[in-house]
Design goal:
It is a single chain. The protein is α+β, with helices and mostly antiparallel strands. It folds into four domains: 220 residues, Heat Shock Protein 90, CATH 3.30.565; 138 residues, Ribosomal Protein S5, domain 2; 94 residues, 3-Layer(aba) Sandwich (Rossmann fold); 122 residues, Heat shock protein 90, C-terminal domain (Four Helix Bundle (Hemerythrin (Met), subunit A)). A nine-stranded mixed β-sheet has the order 1-6-5-4-7-3-2-8-9, with helices on one face. Strands 10-11-14-12-13 form a five-stranded mixed β-sheet, with helices on both faces. It has a five-stranded mixed β-sheet with strand order 15-17-16-19-18. Helix 8 crosses helix 9.
Amino acid sequence: MKKEHTFQSEIKQLLNLMIHSLYSNKEIFIRELISNASDAIDKLKFKSLTQPKKYSEPKEIHIRIKINKEKKTLSIYDTGIGMSYKDTKKNLGTIAQSGTKKFLSSIKETEKKNNNLIGQFGVGFYSSFIVSKKVKVITKKANKKKNKATQWESDGKGTYHISKIKKKILGTKITLTIKPEEEKFLDIWTVRNIINKYSDHITVPIEIYNYDEKKKTFSWEKVNKAQALWTLNKNTITKENYQEFYKYISQDTSNPLIWFHNKVEGIPEYISLLYIPKKNKNNIWNKNNKSGLKLYIKRIYIMDDNKQFLPNYLRFVKGLIDSQDLPLNVSREILQNNTITKKIKIAITKKILNMLQKIAKSKPKKYNKFWKEFGLIFKEGPAEDITNKNIIYKLLRFTSINNKSEQQTLSLKEYIRNMQKKQKKIFFITTDNYNAGKNNPKLEIFKENNIDVLILYDRIDEWMMNYLIEFKGYMFQSVSKIDDSITELFENKTDEIEKITEEDKNLINTIKQILGNRVKDVRITNRLKQTPAVVISDKQDMSTQMSKLFIAAGQKILPLKYIFEINIKHNIIKYIQKIKNKKQITDWIELLFDQALLSERGNLDDPNKFIKNMNNILINNYIEQ
C-alpha cells in the first residue's frame, strides 16, 4: 500500500530550485547517480568482509544503465547494499547534512551557474529531477533475507509515495522518466560519452544495454575502464584523468592545485594519490569537519576521512592510500596504533613537504596561491611536527616592514639574506592586524635604520612563535620585549641618549608615583622617534597577544604589568617637564600611558577615563587660554 509523505521543507526548496533554475551542465546527474551506486557497492563489499555472518558479497558486481526510448525512461541499477523501508524514508525524504542551507543560499546567488554546486552538499540524488518529471526508486537492503523491498516515487513537486514491495535481487534501481525537452539523455552515445567523461575511473564495471546492429541482438556492454586509476602507470594517466578523479573523491567542483601520485614497494607496500585543493573550504575549522584520506586495502574500499595517515596541519590534503599490508577488517582503533600506519604517515608527510618545497622553488606564484589558502593551517606545523621542523620552517611565509604588502610571500631564507651585518636575530612583532603592526611605534627605529621586522597578524602566530625558536642559527626576537640585542644593534646608529639630567630623573620618579604598581618599571628609550611613549613586556613575561589567546579561550590570567618607556627627546615629554601643576602632570601621564596601552592592546579597561583626561588637557591648554 502506497503512503504519501511530504518532503522536509528544505528538500522542497531544493527541488523547486533544481527544477526551475537554469543549469548550464545538466549531464552531471548521471555522474552523481553513478557515484552513489559505486558507493553502495563499496559499502556492501566492506560489510561482507567485516560482518560475513550478516552480509554476503554480491555474486555480480556492476552498475547497469538501460534506456527505453518508447517509455522515455533511463534506469540505473546497482548491486550495492540497498536500503530498508526506514532507510529510504530517511535518506530520500530528508537532508540531514548541515550544509543544506548553505547550498540553498549558494544556489540562489548563482542560479545560472549552480550546477557546479551539486556534489558539495550531499544532495546528488536530487539532481535527477533536473531532467526528470518523475523518479522511481526500487531498493532492497542486502542484509534482509526475505524478499522485502521498498518502492519510492515522486514528481518532485512537494510529496513522495513510499510502499513495501517484493524483490529478489539485492541493490537499487532508479528509473527516471525524462522530460520531453531533455530527451537527448535517451541517446546511448550521449550517455556513453558522459560516463567516459566523468566516471571512467569508477572501479565497478558500468554497463549499458545496447543493440548490436550486426548481430541484431541486445547485450550489456561495459563502457568504463573499471580499473582503479591510482593503480595505473602514471605515464598512461592524463591531466584530465587526475582532475576528474579528484572531483569524484573530494566532491569539489574546482580542479586541484597540485597532486602527487606515488607507488612504494617493499615493507610497507602502498600507493598514495594525494591532492592539494585550489581553494580552502571554511568548514575545515569545524570540529566535526570531515578531513583525512580514503583508505583502500588491495583496491577494496575500507573507510572515508581517515586521519591516521596525515598530521593535523596537513588536513587540507585530499586523496587516498591503498595499502597491501593492512588487514581487510582493520578498524580506526587498530590503525591508530599500527606500525605500518605510522610508517606510511611518516613517508607521505615527507613526500608532501618535499613536493611543496619543489613547487616553492620552481613555481613561486603557485606556491603563493597555496599559502594564501592554507598558510593559516600550515602554521600549526612547527608545534605538531618537530621531526620535519627544518623543512616546515623553509615553507613558512611572512610579510614584513620591507615587504610593503599584507601578502605573506617572504621566506625566512630571504629574510636572512637581507639582514644587516650587525643583526644577530630575526625580529618580529605580533599584532591583531597588518596595519596595526605596520604602524606600531616600536618599529620606528627599525624603519629608520632599514632593519626588517616580520609582521605577524594571524590569530595563530603568537602560539606558533613559541615553537619557532631559531632558524639557520638565528634566534627569533619579539620587538615587543626587552632584549639586549636590540640595544646593541642601534647603539652606533643613533644619537646616544642625551645625558640624563636631574630634571629627567625627577620626571621618571613622578611617573612611577602616578602609575604605581600598574607598571613594572619606567625607563628612557632611544627606540622611539615620532612617539612620546610605549609599553613593552619584560623578557620572561607573557606577551599581549598570548594573553588575548588565553582570554579568548576562557582562561583567567593575572593583569599584565608592562615596562613604560618614554622618549625624552619628544616635544610632549619636554612640555610635561615644564608643567608645575601636579594635577595637570597627572592628566598628561595618564593620557600617555593610556595611549601606549591602546596601541599595544587595541582596547582600554576604562575608555571613559581616557576621554576625561584628554578633555581636561584640552580645556587646560586651549579653551581656558
